[in-house]
Amino acid sequence: MPGSLSRSRYVPDKGLTTRMVTTMFLIGLLYVVFVGALLVLLRGSWPTVLVIAGGLFVAQFWFSDRIAASSMGAREVTPEQAPELHGAVDRICALADMPKPRVAIADIDVPNAFAVGRSERTALVCVTTGLLRRLEPQELEGVLAHELSHVAHRDVAVMTVASFLGVLAGIMTRIAVYSGLGRNSRDGNAAIVALLIPLVSAIVYMISFLLTRLLSRYRELSADRAAALLTGRPSALASALTKVTGEMARIPSRDLRTAEPFNAFWFAPAFSSRESLGRLLSSHPTLEERLDRLGTIAAQLGRP
């Protein structure tokens, strides 16, 4: 993790690094406990459990970024197809002294952006057509600097792996329930096993969900700070945040519901309802908190 930052001009964040290491340790421990519990509950099916768990982990790590980008409609574009967007990415990469990622556009009206990738070499940054239509050039550069800081800090890769356990818990529950794993037991324990597997999976999912949400909220504040300091224009990023959040209220609920499952990756969260439970367990800090932090940075940069 630190190696990437040593090669870029993004400000290191020890708090983020500590949280990422802690989250990965706890997620790894939870993963071991979860697989161990499945092995105990499904004694006769342990090869299946290990093969499925291992296969899903490999698939999640290597292909999740491509799956996420494809699910959000990202279409890679060349400098000839999107010269202004590529120019903005080039300027941020030059400022940060980091390799240029692949550049993509998602043809949706939801004004947003995201970055995915296991490393700088595999990174992809994507903006929506809705964002391109609404932001001024300096605001767009602020958003891109925010997204590229996720790549430089490697927190995109950490979030990808950290979110895997919740996905695995849900998949393993469905496999256990619908395939009848463990039903070969004739001692009357099959019914207990059928009840315990969803219960264990639900607990694992809840814990992993809370851990990833705590990390996600902090990493957004860290990216805001890093982008503001890199560009020297926290007001442009604050303006983009205000504009994107305000425009989100005008987007049809159907479109927001489509984008909402990927909130952990978006620049700003998409909510299909103002009363959504997602606001209580959000992947992002509130707009007010982000603007307050940017205001503090602007004041600091304005001092002699």
From TrEMBL:
Protein's organism: Streptomyces lavendulae subsp. lavendulae
Record text on cofactor binding: Binds 1 zinc ion per subunit.
Record key words, sorted: Cell membrane, Hydrolase, Membrane, Metal-binding, Metalloprotease, Protease, Transmembrane, Transmembrane helix, Zinc
One of the record's GO molecular function terms: zinc ion binding
CDD domains tied to this protein: M48B_HtpX_like
UniProt entry tagged with the keyword Ion transport: no
This protein's name: Protease HtpX homolog
Cofactor: Zn(2+)
Subcellular location: Cell membrane
